[in-house]
Amino acid sequence: MPELPEVETTCRGIAPHIEGKRIAQVVVRDHRLRWPIPEELPSLLKNRTLLEVGRRGKYIILRFSHGHALVHLGMSGSLRIVEVGAAPAKHDHIDLVFGRSCILRLCDPRRFGAFLWTNEAVRKHKLIAHLGPEPLSADFTDEILFKASRKRKVAVKSFVMDSKVVVGVGNIYANEALFMAGIRPTKAAGGLSRAACASLSEHIRTVLTAAIEQGGTTLKDFVGGDGKPGYFKQELKVYGRGGEPCVVCAKPLKEIQLGARATVYCTACQS
Can you give the pTM of this predicted structure? Predict the structure, then answer.
């Protein structure tokens, strides 16, 4: 599933091509995503200028003068720029055609993504209102993490993956940040010290920033806004490396299932 770095990479990739440009046509080939694409979407967006491409959590937000389109890439989706006239593939469900300039195309093989419309303030939308702080913003601090963790018995990995605690820390990056912080993923969140929360918040920011700089992590489906894969996979220290030697102590990494997610850690380096 595309996580925060992949979504941010997508936003940065598509924005220069489409911000400030007018949509000449909207083509919807299949309305059947996670939630049906609004029937009125073509009429809502035709001849409208896209003012800004933004992001909140894993949602891509396309801002117009009369409302916002909310886009989620689901499990396997991608939003990319293609040339006008480029033939659509089987799973290319939506095109925003920016005149003769380019097409913004949504591909979603599993159809778990979304392309919705709202006239209200984005922060009040039911899919956005409950979200916690952005991990790369000043709103996310070690003190906030510490306070949120008090009396929580849930495993710390599941805790930081909760979008009500902090947005965008998906499975891959939770594994990596916990390894960098030296915290075992199965540890109860309520058992974290202030120092541990400071280290964890710092390494969440570090791993997400590094992944964004390298274009996200390609494991199977993800491509950026330019159609190219991400390269952060080359930097992964634990995720996907169960049974392989730890990069610090060389002890074999342990892999378990935690919250139905693959979880890899070092029994020697993480406590």
Answer: 0.86
